[in-house]
Amino acid sequence: MDFETLKQEVIVYSKEIGIDKIGFASASTFDTLKDRLIMQQQLGFASGFEEPDIEKRTNPHLLVPKAKSIIAIALAYPSKMKNAPRSTKEERRGIFCRASWGQDYHTILKDRLQKLESFLLEKVPGSMIKSMVDTGELSDRAVAERAGIGWSGKNCAIITPEFGSYVYLGEMVTNIPFEPDTPIEDQCGTCNKCVDVCPTGALVTGGQLNSQRCIAFLTQTKGFLADEFRDKLGNRLYGCDTCQTVCPENRGKDFHFHKEMEPDPEIAKPKLKPLLTISNREFKEKFGHVSGSWRGKKPIQRNAIIALVHFKDYSAVPDLLNLVKTDVRPVIRGTAAWALGKIGDKEVLPLLLQLKAKETDEEVIKEIDKGIQLLQSKGV
C-alpha cells in the first residue's frame, strides 16, 4: 500500500469532518516526557487526575502492541462569547473557562476520532487503532508537539501558529506506518508573561506546572479550599484562562468553526445565587453537557460561595445562613460560614455563634470560628 497517498487522503478527509489541524508522529517511546513525569511525581506537582502508570503514558506499544505511528488532531474553540451577560450588583455571575463552553469537548473529539477510525478501517481493513482524548493514557500535549500541531508553551499548553492555544487535542495510535511530520520550533522566546501573572505561582518556571497550586485544578477539588487560594479564585467556577489570555500568541485569536462549541451565556456565565440551591437534577439538566460538570455540583457550589465573597455580595447573606443551617455537606456548610464572616455584619455574629453550638463536624466548626473571628476583627 502507498502510505503517503493514504496520509494525504486522511488529511483531506479530516478537513471534511471538521478537524481543524492534523499531524502525524512516530510511535516511539516518549523518553524525555518520562523523565519529566517522574520528576513531577517526586516534587508532588501532579494533579492526580492523570493516568498513574507512567509506562503507559510514555510507551505507545503498551496500548497498541505493533504501533507504528500516532495521528494527532486539534479542534479550535471560541475565545470570545457573543452576547455575554454582565455581572450586576443585583445579580453577580461566575464564569466557566473557555474549554468548558459549549458541549463537552470529549464528546466532540471522540466523534471526530471515531469517523477517522472508520475511514482508516475501510482503507486498511484489520488495522489496529486506539483513540483517546484527555483521559487516555498518553499525554495529548506530548503527542501534539511531536506531530507538529504546535509547540509546548511556557504556560504548559500547546500553542498552534493558526489558533493559538485555544485548541482541544486528541490522538490515535495505530499500526499503520505513516511518515511523521516535523515538530514546530518553540517560539515563546524570552516572553514570560504567563509565568509572571499566574495568580497562585503554579507555573514554577516556563513549562513546569505545580498542578496542586493551579486554579484550574483547585476549582475541581471537592474538599475545603485552602485559605491562601480563596482570594485568588475571583469569580471562577471551573478552570482558569489567565495564562492563555495574557499570551501574545492568542491575541486576536477567536474561532467559531463548530456550532456545538458555542457557549450558552447563561451556562458559561451563570448567576451565582441560584447555584447555591440548585438540585442535582437541575444541575444535571442545565450543566450536564459541559465538561465543567464532571466533578458534580459540589465544587461548583463551593466556588460560587467564594465568588460571592469576591464580589462582597451582602444580598447573599440569607442564602449563606440557610446553607450553614441546613446543608448536609460539611464543605458547603463550612465555606458558607467563612463567607458570612467575610461579608456579614453585626446581625450575623449571634447567628453564627448559635450555629456553632449545634455543629458537630470539627472542620465546619473551624470554618465557623474563622467567620466569627473575621466579624469580630471588623469591630462587630
Any key phrases for this structure?
380 residues, alpha+beta, single chain, Leucine-rich Repeat Variant, 41% helix, elongated
Write structural notes for this entry.
41% of the residues lie in helices and 11% in strands. It contains 17 helices and 10 strands. It is elongated, with a radius of gyration of 23 Å. The termini are far apart. 42% of the residues are buried.
Structural class: alpha+beta
Q: What overall geometry do the principal axes of the alpha carbons give?
A: elongated
Number of strands: 10
Spatial gap, N to C terminus: 81 Å
Question: What is the strand and helix layout of this fold?
Answer:
Elements: H1 3-16, E1 21-26, H2 31-43, H3 54-58, E2 69-76, E3 95-96, H4 105-123, E4 129-132, H5 140-146, E5 151-152, E6 158-159, E7 167-174, H6 193-197, E8 203-205, E9 208-209, H7 215-218, H8 227-230, E10 236-238, H9 242-245, H10 265-268, H11 272-275, H12 280-287, H13 297-310, H14 317-326, H15 330-343, H16 348-358, H17 362-377
Parallel strand pairs: 3-10
Antiparallel strand pairs: 1-2, 2-7, 4-7, 5-6, 8-9
Summed up:
The chain has 380 residues and is of the alpha+beta class.
